[in-house]
Write a structure and sequence with these properties.
The complex is a heterodimer of chains A (about 525) and B (about 300).
Chain A (H helix, E strand, L loop, with lengths): L1 H17 L2 H34 L2 H27 L4 H27 L8 H20 L8 H23 L2 H14 L5 H16 L10 H23 L11 H20 L10 H28 L1 H6 L2 H6 L4 H35 L5 E5 L2 E5 L1 H30 L2 H25 L9 H4 L3 H4 L4 H7 L13 H25 L4
Antiparallel strand pairs in A: 1-2
Helix pairs in contact in A: 1-14, 2-11, 2-14, 3-4, 4-5, 5-6, 7-8, 8-9, 9-10, 11-14, 11-15, 11-16, 14-15, 15-16, 15-20
Chain B lengths: L2 E12 L2 E12 L3 E5 L6 H8 L7 E6 L2 E2 L4 H5 L2 E4 L11 H10 L6 H10 L15 H13 L5 E5 L7 H18 L2 E6 L2 H7 L2 E6 L2 E7 H9 L3 E5 L3 H12 L3 E4 L3 E5 L5 H10 L6 E5 L3 H8 L8
Parallel strand pairs in B: 3-8, 3-9, 6-7, 7-8
Antiparallel strand pairs in B: 1-2, 1-4, 4-5, 9-10, 11-13, 11-14, 12-13
Helix pairs in contact in B: 4-5, 8-11
The chains are: A mainly alpha (about 525), B alpha/beta (about 300).
Chain lengths: ~525, ~300
């Protein structure tokens, strides 16, 4: 009986909201904007791909190498001309340049003959460089007649010879395995690095071998780049754990940080295994598109909620239509509750629309979406894209509720739509900017009681998302002076919402309607 | 007699000003009760307290013997009404507005909605959006809304605002019918006695937040009309006064440059006119002076001068 009245009030509220043109327009803008953003990103990607397709990568590499070689040869000729009749001082200088040019030309000719792109990440390019270096060494060593060479020098010459032969064989057979084997041997023979470091480097080599990261041209060059990035990350995490020091902040690892580093390591290893690479800059176009679409959508949802909540009570007060509610046999708290629930319904409804639109747009334009990888207790888990993004929207909805509560409270207290919508939009837009100023001067624990520092929980909960990583690293200027635990933020926001809600309810219940 | 509304020692402050001062009265089922008072007397404030807009600072309100404070929803379900202007959701049709209101009441059928729409004569335009309605049409829909759930007590604040003469007559008939045939207590506020006299059975008069008195309308009117006054427009008012002073001194109420006002019955008008005419005083016209609220107050309070 009593609940049925609440339900009736709720139905009435929904009828009223459904006739609000501003909400309908904003939801349409959200849908169009989200699809538009996705389309723009797709267009960008297609254009990039087209550019790439127009020129064959292999041909392009060859052409540029040929051009470089030609340049060097011309320069060599110039030097030879200059050498005739040059002063003694200059001769020495020119001879040096000539020697380096000659070796470079040799390198390029070798590369071209072996069909290796010297400018790429191909491991064989590395080998070629080493070969040239070794040859130069040999020439220098052999400049001393054999009889006058020390035992050590002789040994070195023999060693270099063997190495050269091995390298040449690797180039001939494209034998990545042996390359790693040589690298391992060198690491083991190197006395200047610690055992732990040796272990780390050897493990990295093992990973390179396991995932066959030769650096040679494959379908997607970006994957390889990010794989190298991941390997260097893995090395750093391991070093951190060994030294018990955070390599970035140079602070000793607390138990908590240790746990986090272990988890990060697990995530990086998992990503490498899944070949879930992102491009070198950290974001893939797919991820930018999804993130941007959600970001824009949630922005619009907050605007919708500010406008609706900011006008829900004050609007009825100013038009006088609140009278028909007050005259009806319903207690005021029921009217209040029905209004809150109807607003929440609109919020949830638009969030669901947003989720559906993003998922569908992403599905049509990019196919699959990126899943979310996280680790607990050093074991990596993967969260399916659809579930991950649903949870993501859900977490972002916390912000929506906080801003809605603010606008609703202002609407009840000021009884002025312009004031409540205006103030809450100003807080929404200006609050973070004002907060980053405060961050400049404020130091200390109390900073965590600033509401804005507790919002945007998504970037903390889904911290392995590359956007969150960028955000948390202070790329956007919101580097929190104090690390606030998620549980604190949640409790804090809950208290804020309850306070605002209670203030509004009390005001709505008690104050006269004149 | 059934008591539909009972008010006990009601008081209300706006800040430090006491706007309602210890008011008590009752409204019975089956009557039209007029709540009369000048602008700012506290009529709307009293109504808003009964309807739950304003908190009650002191005193009690009973609706059908149910305490409004203790059992708000049950008490309120017996009330229907309009406060000040009828305000509805402008982007929705009159019908949707009625349906929304019906949802908040107990057991209002679709037939009942159609019935009240017909009673107020809005059946042709009820589907239009409220923003297209004139004030009079809004009053009609407001009235329909107020009687939708067959309330025991119908409270209407200045219901004739914006209605044309035909509309006022219709309203009067509707209200009288509700009270006398359907045993509803109708509580109507107004600042016009002339309006009250045509529809009310009893009238309560309020001024400066105090209830001056409650009387049946015929008693009130007989008090007032017993001493109705007429103005004789003339340029020789002073001379007329001298002439009339001989026999009618006590009747002279007021003398100005342009007229002389006498407190006489209608049948005496001809007599006075003849006297003045025979004394060669030019009379341009004779007007009956409308009984003012003040006169009503004065009569009810026995000529006392409590009114500030």
């Amino acid at each position: 009986m009593k609940l049925s009245k609440l339900l009736s009030l709720y139905i009435n509220e929904m009828i009223k909201i459904s006739r609000k043109i501003s909400a309908i327009i904003l939801i349409s803008i959200m849908i169009i904007g989200v699809i538009g953003f996705g389309g723009l990103m797709k267009l960008n990607e297609t254009m990039n791909n087209n550019q790439m397709k127009n020129i064959s990568q292999v041909d392009f590499a060859k052409q540029s190498m040929d051009a470089q070689l030609d340049d060097m040869k011309t320069r060599l000729k110039e030097i030879e001309i200059q050498l005739e009749g040059a002063s003694e001082e200059n001769v020495l200088y020119l001879e040096q340049e000539k020697a380096s040019l000659v070796s470079q030309i040799e390198l390029f000719e070798l590369a071209i003959s072996k069909n290796i792109n010297i400018n790429s990440e191909d491991y064989r390019a590395d080998i070629l460089n080493t070969i040239i270096e070794l040859k130069a060494q040999q020439i220098q060593l052999n400049s001393t007649p054999f009889e006058f060479q020390t035992e050590q020098e002789k040994k070195k010459v023999a060693l270099n010879d063997a190495l050269l032969k091995r390298y040449e064989k690797i180039i001939e057979n494209n034998d990545f395995k042996d390359f790693i084997a040589i690298s391992n041997e060198q690491i083991n023979d190197n006395d200047s690095i610690s055992d732990n470091e040796k272990k780390i480097l050897l493990e990295s080599n093992q990973l390179l071998l396991k995932y066959n990261l030769t650096g040679q041209q494959k379908n997607d060059i970006q994957y390889e780049n990010s794989s190298y990035l991941l390997i260097s990350q893995i090395e750093n995490y391991k070093r951190s754990l060994v030294a018990n020091v955070d390599l970035v902040s140079r602070k000793p690892l607390t138990n908590e940080l240790k746990e986090k580093t272990k988890n990060d390591l697990a995530v990086a290893l998992y990503k490498l295994d899944k070949d879930v690479g992102t491009s070198q800059s950290g974001f893939s176009i797919n991820e930018i598109a999804v993130e941007g679409m959600f970001g824009f959508g949630i922005f619009i949802i907050i605007l919708i909620m500010l406008i609706l909540a900011g006008g829900s009570v004050s609007g009825e007060m100013s038009t006088g239509s609140i009278k028909s509610l007050i005259i009806s046999p319903t207690k005021r708290w029921k009217i209040f509750t029905a209004k809150v629930f109807s607003l929440l319904t609109v919020g949830v409804f638009s969030a669901l629309i947003l989720y559906a639109v993003v998922i569908i747009t992403n599905g049509i334009l990019f196919g699959q979406g990126l899943s979310y990888i996280f680790a607990t207790n050093g074991v990596a888990h993967e969260l399916n894209f659809y579930i991950y993004r649903f949870a993501y929207v859900f977490v972002n909805f916390i912000d929506v509720i906080v801003y809605m509560a603010l606008a609703f409270m202002l609407s009840v207290i000021t009884r002025n739509t312009a004031a409540s919508v205006g103030i809450s939009i100003a807080v929404f837009f200006g609050g973070n900017i004002a907060n980053s100023f405060i961050q400049l001067f404020a130091k200390g624990e109390w900073v965590k009681f600033i509401p804005f520092n507790n919002l945007s929980l998504a970037s903390k909960i889904f911290e392995n998302n590359s956007f969150s990583q960028a955000m948390n690293s202070g790329m956007y200027g919101t580097n929190y002076a104090v690390n606030i635990p998620i549980s604190f933020s949640l409790c804090y926001l809950l208290v804020i919402i309850i306070c605002m809600g209670y203030t509004a309810l009390d005001s709505f219940n008690r104050r006269d309607i004149k | 007699m059934e008591t539909a509304l009972k008010i006990n020692n009601l008081s209300k402050w706006f800040g430090k000003r006491k706007v309602i001062d210890n008011i008590s009265f009752e409204v019975y089922a089956g009557e039209v009760f007029g709540f009369l008072g000048p602008n700012g007397a506290g009529k709307t404030t009293t109504i808003k307290m009964i309807m739950g807009f304003l908190g009650v600072d002191e005193g009690e309100i009973f609706i059908n013997d149910i305490d409004l404070k203790k059992n708000y929803e049950k008490a309120m379900s017996n009330i229907g009404g309009i406060v000040e202007n009828p305000e509805m959701y402008k982007d929705l049709s009159g019908m949707t507005n009625l349906k929304m209101y019906a949802r908040l009441q107990n057991k209002v059928t679709k037939q009942r909605i159609d019935e009240v729409v017909k009673i107020v004569g809005m059946q042709n335009r009820i589907k239009e959006k409220v923003k297209k309605y004139s004030l009079g049409m809004k009053q009609r829909v407001g009235l329909a809304q107020a009687m939708l759930h067959r309330p025991k007590l119908l409270i209407l604040d200045e219901p004739t605002n914006g209605l044309d003469p035909a509309g006022i007559r219709d309203l009067r008939d509707i209200l009288k019918n509700l009270a006398h045939n359907e045993n509803v207590a109708v509580f109507v506020s107004s600042h016009l006695l002339s309006e009250m006299e045509l529809m009310c059975d009893r009238v309560g008069i309020i001024n400066n937040g105090k209830l001056i008195g409650v009387k049946p309308i015929n008693e009130l009117l007989s008090n007032v009309s017993g001493k109705s006054s007429y103005r004789f427009a003339t340029k020789q008012a002073q001379k007329a006064k001298e002439i009339l002073s001989e026999n009618y001194e006590s009747l002279i109420k007021n003398v100005t440059e342009h007229y002389i006002e006498l407190e006489i019955e209608q049948e005496n008008v001809a007599e006075i006119t003849t006297i003045l005419a025979t004394n060669e005083i030019g009379i341009f016209g004779v007007n009956k002076v409308e009984t003012s609220l003040e006169d009503a107050f004065i009569n009810m309070t026995g000529g006392g001068n409590e009114i500030e």
